[in-house]
Design goal:
Elements lengths: L3 E8 L18 E8 L2 E9 L11 H6 L5 E3 L5 H9 L3 E4 L5 H9 L4 E2 L16
Length: 130
């Protein structure tokens, strides 16, 4: 039986596995999407996120919840985004950092935590968690 998973990772650029993860979820300019078939990467794509902070009409969470992603790997994100994404049926993980390939490996090895209302660890600037 073929198992297909679509993973989304908010990123700062369109560099595929070498893209830098966007640590400010609410202002992420891109979403890198990795299609996994039987634990093997089959395709990598990037979509532009034109959220409210960049003149769009929707939040990144609203855009991503309609992207077909099954699993989202993030750095920081606030409780509203966590709730919206989880309510759309997505598994949301926080604590990712570095490059897309780093987040993917961390997820594969169980190093990322399922997100909850306390997933924003940027205590100095709560605004980075929206």
């Amino acid at each position: 039986m073929i198992k297909i998973t679509t993973i989304g990772i908010p990123t700062l650029n369109k560099g595929g596995l070498l893209s830098d993860i966007s640590m400010h979820f609410g202002r992420t300019p891109y979403l890198t999407i990795i299609k996994i078939e039987n634990d093997e990467i089959k395709d990598i794509d990037t979509i532009e996120i034109q959220g409210k902070h960049t003149g769009g009409s929707k939040t990144p969470a609203e855009i991503i919840s309609n992207s077909g992603v099954d699993v989202l790997l993030c750095g920081n994100l606030g409780p509203k985004a966590v709730s919206m994404l989880q309510n759309s049926g997505m598994e949301v993980y926080s604590g990712a950092s570095g490059k897309v390939e780093d987040a993917f490996k961390a997820w594969q090895t169980g190093m990322l935590q399922l997100a909850d209302e306390n997933s924003c660890d940027d205590k100095a600037d709560k605004n980075s968690c929206h």
